[in-house]
From TrEMBL:
<dbReference type="InterPro" id="IPR003016">
    <property type="entry name" value="2-oxoA_DH_lipoyl-BS"/>
</dbReference>
<dbReference type="InterPro" id="IPR000089">
    <property type="entry name" value="Biotin_lipoyl"/>
</dbReference>
<feature type="region of interest" description="Disordered">
    <location>
        <begin position="80"/>
        <end position="113"/>
    </location>
</feature>
<keyword id="KW-0808">Transferase</keyword>
<dbReference type="InterPro" id="IPR023213">
    <property type="entry name" value="CAT-like_dom_sf"/>
</dbReference>
<dbReference type="InterPro" id="IPR045257">
    <property type="entry name" value="E2/Pdx1"/>
</dbReference>
<protein>
    <recommendedName>
        <fullName>Dihydrolipoamide acetyltransferase component of pyruvate dehydrogenase complex</fullName>
        <ecNumber>2.3.1.-</ecNumber>
    </recommendedName>
</protein>
<dbReference type="Pfam" id="PF00198">
    <property type="entry name" value="2-oxoacid_dh"/>
</dbReference>
<dbReference type="InterPro" id="IPR001078">
    <property type="entry name" value="2-oxoacid_DH_actylTfrase"/>
</dbReference>
<keyword id="KW-0012">Acyltransferase</keyword>
<comment type="similarity">
    <text>Belongs to the 2-oxoacid dehydrogenase family.</text>
</comment>
<keyword id="KW-0450">Lipoyl</keyword>
<feature type="domain" description="Lipoyl-binding">
    <location>
        <begin position="3"/>
        <end position="78"/>
    </location>
</feature>
<dbReference type="Pfam" id="PF00364">
    <property type="entry name" value="Biotin_lipoyl"/>
</dbReference>
<dbReference type="InterPro" id="IPR011053">
    <property type="entry name" value="Single_hybrid_motif"/>
</dbReference>
Length: 347
């Protein structure tokens, strides 16, 4: 038998420390390689860390609440890869010689995982509206959005676009298309001309993102997640739509990998499906902007001197004024509108 140190992996958080939120296993637990062992909070999201080796958890080094860097030892296993990586089905999960380390009750995962609404109903069932405990993703979102509202100089631009081409394209698509796919691709293509919108503000400089990605804000059982879609400007709408739908389903099923937030240049926040006509969203740092999308609805408009009823969608662009001026951002928003209105049946 030998001691195997488990180290904090590099979670691609640009060198920032991570905070240990919750251990999912106790001392004495038999661990297989790849088992989720703890939850951590990075500067962008909450995610699970998997075991890089197998064995019996001998000691926890990084307690809950500790802040650690990549490469630091967080726990020690006893065993070796060949002997412990394939324990039998009858192997005990907790060694009798080592008492379990007290931890907070585990949050039930997919299938038994309580939603925000379920927690709310439980609170009300006691005879009155009691305090509602926020989930970890909700706590992270609350902190980050409050910091953004307080520190990022926002300004807002509003316009609308002819949604007729999108409506026709969705009807022509086999199996349908997610509305978000249109706005993700349009924003990515507009950024090709307005490349400041792929930058973040840092130390009085604009730092370009290494790759072009556009985020999609999604609500899953009351928890807010941002899906990062890579290079959507070069991809078919069907491909973007499938990735969005697949990622949402994986999050709903409790897939830890799908919950990981990756860098994006800006985010699409769409409340059209909830009947919202227009709204202004909060920028998600270090991104430079967020595009808020309202519902597609009939609107009276004038075209070539004629009054017609047209399917239109309201768009509101929230921008970090340190990254872009009003005129520059207005040009970017107009480019998004042109992309949306130029979609063809075979596009």
């Amino acid at each position: 038998m030998m001691d195997i140190p488990l180290k904090m992996p590099d979670l691609a958080t640009t060198g920032a420390t991570v905070k240990v939120l919750r251990w999912l296993v106790a001392a004495g637990t038999v661990i297989r390689r790849g088992d989720p062992i703890l939850e951590v909070e990075t500067d962008k999201a909450v995610m699970q860390v998997e075991a890089a080796a197998a064995g019996v958890l001998k000691a926890i080094v990084a307690d809950e609440g500790a802040e650690v860097d990549a490469g630091e030892t967080i726990a020690v296993l006893e065993g070796d890869d060949s002997a412990a990586s394939q324990p039998s089905k009858d192997s005990p999960q907790v060694a009798e010689a080592a008492p379990p380390r007290p931890t907070r009750p585990a949050i039930p995962e997919a299938g038994g995982r309580r939603s925000f609404f379920a927690r709310n109903r439980e609170a009300r069932s006691s005879g009155g509206l009691a305090a509602i405990a926020l989930s970890v993703p909700q706590k992270v979102a609350a902190r980050r959005l409050a910091e953004s509202q307080a520190t990022v100089p926002h300004f807002y631009l509003q316009t609308s676009a002819d949604a007729g081409p999108m409506v026709a394209r969705r009807k022509a698509a086999v199996g349908g298309l997610a509305w978000d796919a249109f706005f993700v691709r349009a924003a990515a293509r507009a950024i090709r001309t307005f490349d400041r919108m792929r930058c973040r503000f840092e130390d009085d400089r604009l730092i370009p993102a290494p790759a072009l990605a556009v985020g999609v804000a999604v609500d899953v059982d009351g928890d807010l997640f941002t899906l990062s879609i890579d290079e959507p400007g070069r991809r078919p709408l069907e491909s973007i739509s499938r990735e969005i739908v697949d990622r949402v389903e994986r999050i709903r099923a409790g897939d830890a990998e799908a919950r990981i937030a990756r860098p994006a240049s800006l985010t699409i926040s769409n409340l059209g499906g909830s009947g919202v006509e227009s709204f202004a969203a909060i920028v998600n740092p270090p991104e430079s902007a967020v595009l808020a999308v309202g519902k597609v609805m009939p609107a009276v408009t004038a075209i070539d001197g004629r009054v017609v009823v047209q399917e239109r969608v309201n768009l509101t662009l929230s921008v970090d004024h340190r990254v872009a001026s009003g005129k520059y951002a207005a040009g970017f928003l107009s480019a998004i509108v042109r992309e949306l209105e130029s979609i063809g049946g075979g596009d």
